[in-house]
Amino acid sequence: MAERSLMPELNIQYQQCLHLLFNNAGLGLDKSFDDATDADWRVTFDVNYFGAV
Fold first, then answer.
1. What is the DSSP letter of 30?
2. Cβ atoms of 24 and 51 closer than 8 Å
3. Which of 23, 27, 32, 40 could bond 36 through an S-S bridge, CB–CB 3.0 to 4.6 Å?
4. Is 47 exposed, middle or buried (CB count within 10 Å of its CB: 0-12, 13-18, 19+)?
5. Per-residue pLDDT of the chain (53 residues; tens, 9 = 90+)
């Protein structure tokens, strides 16, 4: 309960210095390097690189 009572005070304190907030998603392969196909790498690259652009 003590943590909840601090949240409004912390929010006000940090609200004045937060300028940008990024939300990014990515994925990884669950295969070994040798077992991954070109299509696997393409999907991974598309999500991880172009998702942030």
1. S
2. yes
3. 40
4. middle
5. 455 555 566 555 555 665 666 767 788 889 999 999 999 999 999 988 887 77
